[in-house]
Amino acid sequence: MRSLVITGGTDGMGRALALTYLGRGDEVVIVGRDGEKGAAVLEAAAAMGAADRAHFVRADLSLVSENRRVIDEVRRVLSTVDALILCARHYRSTRAVTAEGFEDNFALFYLSRFVLGYGLVDLLDAAERPVILNVSGPGSGTSDVAWDDLQCERDYRGMDALMRGGPLNDLLGLGFVQNEASAKVRYVLLHPGTVSTSFSGEYDEQTQLVIDHLKDTARPIEEALAPMLEVLDHPPAAGLSAVVLGEALDVRGPAFDADAARRLYGETTVLLSRLASAAPGVSMSRLRRLLDRPVFATVATVHPDGGPHQSVVWVTRDGDDVLFVVAVGSRKERNLRRSPDVSVLVSPPEEPYTYAAIRGTATLSDEGATELRDALAIKYTGKAYADHNPEAVGRTRDTAITTVRVSPTRVVGRL
Ligand SMILES: NC(=O)c1ccc[n+]([C@@H]2O[C@H](COP(=O)([O-])OP(=O)(O)OC[C@H]3O[C@@H](n4cnc5c(N)ncnc54)[C@H](OP(=O)(O)O)[C@@H]3O)[C@@H](O)[C@H]2O)c1
User: Fold this and answer.
1) Cα of 231 to ligand 1 centre, how many Å?
2) Which of 31, 104, 152, 336 has its CB 3.0 to 4.6 Å from that of 7, i.e. a possible disulfide?
């Protein structure tokens, strides 16, 4: 049984995919903003005997805070995610700004996909052949990114604002792979062509006429599903791929500019950090989630002369305690034996202006240290320690290691 998360799963292609996989015996978390539509999908699921495998999370995905709540909800229901399918979108003839201050298309069509993709990466990593299917509009060219007007403040036109989502998502996919967010997850950008769906949106009169016409003339949903099912059922070998109307699109083309992807990633992290800066304090659920990911932590201990010592370590957690290993005789180990005062700092790489500094007391124990090092190596590299670093193991065969457990006394930061 596979586990899927589908945004915009209450209508259009998202709904059709949800029912397809529920019909096959898989488990699906459907995310949408309309409670009645959610209930209708659950009813359809129950009618096919899939009530216990269908979950609905009601959320307005144009809000970053709501995307974060969705990530928490998904974690409550699933321990792995085989496929994250991104289908939520909403057209607006008139410019709208979310309560968090982002232009609505940018927030829903791009930012939500950024937050969900990076935020669920560890659950995806835990699946056998994970895939993110970003249903958007790949290949239209980075020249379409309005770097000086990402929030469509100038001369807003509904169709232009929606179309901007294509290049932004192309760069999101490229950035995801460039950042090595995961060695396992396959990122697929897919343009389904023009498909007769609900065309969720708020249209002016003239645009509504065009939409009504499209509903009558565009391809049926069933036809558009085939290429999606193909990539979901057989994730491609490449980290990033793009499909337009069932045909592969070269992801080395002009839309996939590495510098532009880095730039967009950087600008997005700054935007997200501004949001975070409005709310200082650390959410313990976010912190637990962050520690479950292969995030690098900076550990600070106290030298005999009272000065600070810092180093970077792999970490995991047991409840709210932070665990890592140190070599016996290392500077860190000696410092901790003398003074158990320790600080561990973590920051999500995609939101570098947010962080949590965990101050606490360290307890050292030899028990289970080798097993913990192996578990950490698998978490960070996908391999047992000896396979990841055979030379070091050979060199330090007799070097003892010990486990450090940090029990928090205070957690500060902005996360
Ligand atoms: N249809 C096409 O011709 C076409 C062409 C190219 C690309 N695409 C892409 O394909 C994907 C699926 O499109 P579709 O036409 O199947 O979609 P659709 O029928 O318009 O449905 C969109 C879904 O997104 C949900 N949604 C809208 N705003 C939301 C919000 N703020 N928070 C959470 N959910 C929200 C909608 O819920 P409500 O029903 O409550 O609004 C609906 O479930 C989209 O990413 C779209 O850009 C479609």
Assistant:
1) 19
2) 31
Contact 184, 382 (CB under 8 A): yes
Using DSSP, state whether 352 is helix, strand or coil.
coil
Q: What is the CATH number of the domain that holds 300?
A: 2.30.110.10
User: What's the burial of 205, exposed, middle or buried (CB within 10 Å: 0-12/13-18/19+)?
Assistant: exposed
**Residues 221, 244 within the same domain:** yes
Domain boundary residue, one of 234, 260, 277: 277
Range of the domain at 356: 284-414
Q: Which of 29-43, 86-100, 239-253, 396-410 has the lowest mean pLDDT?
A: 396-410
Q: What percent of the chain has pLDDT over 90?
A: 80
Is there a single domain that holds both residue 338 and residue 259? Answer: no
> Is 252 found in the same domain as 216?
yes
356 close to 346: Cβ distance less than 8 angstroms: yes
Show which of 248, 277, 306 is a domain's final residue.
Answer: 277
Q: At what angle do helices 112-119 and 165-178 cross, to 10 degrees?
A: 20
pLDDT in tens, 134-158: 999 998 766 678 899 999 999 899 9
Question: Is 294 found in the same domain as 262?
Answer: no
Check pocket membership of 88 for ligand 1, CB cut-off 6 A: yes
Q: Distance between CA 346 and CA 327 in Å, rounded?
A: 21
Ligand 1 in reach of 70 Cβ (< 6 A) = no
The enclosing domain of 186 has a CATH number of 3.40.50.720
What is the H or E stretch that residue 68 is in? helix 64-77
Pocket flag, ligand 1, residue 90 (CB < 6 Å): yes
Same domain, 184 and 327: no
In a mutational test of the pocket of ligand 1, which residue from 17, 20, 89 has the highest number of ligand atoms less than 8 Å from its CB? 89
For 322-356, what is each residue's pLDDT tens digit?
Answer: 999 999 999 999 999 999 999 999 999 888 888 99
Q: Sheet containing 341-346: which strands, arranged edge to edge?
A: 308-313, 297-302, 341-346, 355-365, 401-414, 321-327, 316-318
Could you identify the atom of ligand 1 that is nearest to the CA of residue 112? 32
Answer whether 76's CB lies under 8 Å from 125's CB: no
Q: Is the same domain home to 66 and 157? A: yes
Structural domains in the chain (count): 2
Beta carbons within 8 Å of 144's beta carbon, 6+ residues apart: 163, 164, 166, 167
**Is the domain of 200 the same as that of 59?**
yes
Together in a domain, 265 and 346? no
**Cβ atoms 28, 4 nearer than 8 A:** yes
